[in-house]
Amino acid sequence: MFLVSVFCFLAFSVIKGDPASSLAGIHAASEQLEALRDEMGLNRNVVTRYFDWLFNFLTGNPGYSYSFRGEAIADLIAQRIPVTISLAMMSLLLVIIISLSVSLLTVKREGSVTDNIVNFFTAAGISTPGFFLGLLFIFIFGFGFNLFIPGNFVNYNENFFLFLVYLFFPALAIAIPNSAILIKFLRGSLFQELQSDYVRTAKSKGASGLYILRRHVFKNACLPAVTMLGMITAEVFSGSIIIEQVFTIPGVGRLLITAIGIRDYPLIQCLMVYIAFLVVTANTAADILMMIIDPRIKQTEKVR
Predict the structure, then answer these.
(1) Does residue 247 contact residue 138 with C-beta atoms inside 8 Å?
(2) How far apart are CA 225 and CA 213, in angstroms?
């Protein structure tokens, strides 16, 4: 995370363009530009500026936006982060429900017509970008069935039920491609585990197929899927950036795109570090969950 913060800060320090010039306008005098640069701290040494920014970031005051009327960045993010987290959590829940349901219901039908249909739709889901699904959902369910008003949004503090309704189709657009990836991994692991010796041994002892699947196979097959789920969790949070723009959802992702468009460097830096933090946290949680599911991983690390 420290290296991410360094790279983000340096990237926006060496990138072409002057935030002071963008704020002051093309007709500003050189004296006005110089005074504005001093006020914004742009004339100071880059190392000094970085550690000042890092200290303010860690103490909860990462600075003020250049473009949002000088509003505090912490307030801008705090207003939008509940929407983004709600969208990501709903997307992740849909990913788990869809992938587990499809994988477990079709696991014993390898090579069948159902298996071929599932393989076709997983390949289509993997190759279809989320923003295209979002546009498709707007056309079909928004304009076609009038299930929601495209371009409109209801905040959670106004009507929580309508808030969830407006988040459902964006969440589904994020969930479908990621569900297809997880289905591919989970079904492959399940098929592999079903061919193992311990499954044949359990069957010879009279254990039912459902018991073997629930008690032994599923737990062992989950390990690679959990690793992939950690990556998908990070993808869900970062993928909401484009989806929020497609559905005009006032979340962190849309705020980031707006900040990039107007070169609001302090705001972009904070949002990039925020996204990196989510990626690191998701992968760390996946590693911890793997050790909970399979204690042998922890024992192996102790032996090493």
Answers:
(1) yes
(2) 16
